[in-house]
Specification:
By secondary structure, the protein is of the alpha/beta class. The protein contains 27 helices and 19 strands.
Length: 611
Amino acid sequence: MFTRAEIIKKLRENITLHRPIIGVAVGSGFSAQQAAAGGADFLLVLNAGRFRAAGVSSLAALMPFANSNELVFDVGCKEILPRVKNTPVVFGVCATDPTTDHDSLIASIIKNGFHGVNNFPTVGLIDGVLRSALEAEGLGFDREVAFMARAVDAGLFTVAFVFDPLQAQKMARAGVDIVCAHLGFTAGGRTGIKSALPLEDGLKLAGEIFAAVDAENSRAIKMVYGGPIITPQEADFFYANTGAVGYIGGSAFERIPAETKIEEITGQFKSIATLQKENESLRRELRKKKNYDDIVGQSRIMQQMFEIVSKVADKDINVLVCGESGTGKELVVKAIHSNSPRFNQPFIKVNCAAIPETLLESELFGHEKGAFTGATRQRLGLFEMAHKGTLFLDEIGEMSLSVQAKLLRAIQQQEFQRVGGSKTIKVDVRIICATNMDLHNAVAQGRFREDLYYRLNVVTIRTPPLRSHKEDIPLLVNFFLGKIREKFKRDIRRLTPRALDALLAYDWPGNVRELEHTLESAAVLCDHDYIDIQDLPAHLHLADAVDATPRSKIIANARQNSAMLEQQLIAEALAKFAWHRGKAAAYLGITRRTLYNKIKKYGLEDGRSGQ
């Protein structure tokens, strides 16, 4: 158990040694462990962290989904305190909760083993009519000041968020240990706010706040939170230009980086003095992060897949990614490349199903001028373009046996000759393949070379179908709604419980891609800022009629509606690419042969004028 005096003594030692004080707001036991391992000086358990851990924006912390204090007690007592023994833990208090009195709340905080308190959620983030109403009812910022003053008297370590000089003056007068200039919710990331206070304006505001603190209580430790500060360099900029001696962050540590990077990023913030020499490493990590963020899932099966990706990414071995269409095979391949030593070298993709067999060899290995009719100039192949980098062979199972033989020689010897040429060209290329075909079965049937199969299949990564990890659907919904808001400029924020239940009940034969297209369609067609069950395709809410309708009829209706959706998606893709079947097939994630069959099945006609 840390006393207030012990915590303050340790923080002042940091200041003396010119080390920044780092506070991390966490939403789970795992995040807390990683932040503590990275060197955080204290942890804050805030209701916003719990929402971040669920994939929801921190802004949800200000909405009445649950009693904030009960939520913080639950996660703090069950997850944080049992797992973090050597770092002080600060309780995020909703001091304006009218259902409890301050003395009882402070007694519970001390009894449960928390070392300090912080005023969050805070009315400082609320303005307008609602703020005026809260202030009129005695539930405004002054109530938070009164709570912090009682916490000081009770011997708790205190961290106060303030938003202007007057609030800073009040908190400093109350005797809090840390006054933190809250610059707004952290910008950046897919679920973060889209704009934030510019750095220059943030410097000015922080300076005004700290001047008010010094005039009232020069012993108070001054820190900054969030807003435009995302990187260690931006935090260091504030240290150098204001009286701040530390930074408190939530999204910058927990949401914007992947959770597996919390320890590393926290350590970077902690060691900003030496970090200047590691800029290239930081840029590499930020580039990697993007390609991990696009693969959404916290289920056990997805975490197992992430673990395999992490293990093979920096090993220079060939990888085979298998899975049904729409399960995100290409995202996995990009993540492997981005996390490999080849990350800053070319990443070249070829869809083996989208290129006719007669052209695939030339596409892969290039050709010399005059090698065949139409070869009017020399052309470099994809193997040459991918030199030192990664060559991604998508739909490898569609490759003909003759091209397979030439591919095998190129992989074994790391050399080849262009079509029509005699010069041997040496390359250094990592091969990653993907397929929705059972290649082992294709080998048994003689449709795929056994020696090539074992050469490509050093490690297999299987992307799971969505039906096997439906617990990730709420996370995927939040992820896709964020993309939809940017793509269609529709402010769609949520699904109704009934609509979400319908998504969870469906088996998603088209996997994550089908889920994304379904949400896009619903968002475009709905007339409100949420998606209800009637906005979803009919086959997703047939479950409502299960008791009244024979099962066979339900299945038949579902198949009919699914076919209608498939026909619509295919027609839209063909129109999008002006009936270029190769591009449309690649966009839909199916083979060209499958696309031809679907066009014939649904009787689709080329809609281009005069063609």
